[in-house]
Amino acid sequence: QVQLVESGGGLVQAGGSLRLSCAASGRTFSGYRLGWFRQAPGKQREFVAQISWSVGNTYYADFVKGRFTISRDNAKNTMYLQMNSLKPEDTAVYYCAATKTSVWNDYWGQGTQVTVSS
Question: Which backbone phi and psi does 90 adopt, to 5 degrees?
Answer without folding.
Answer: -85, -5
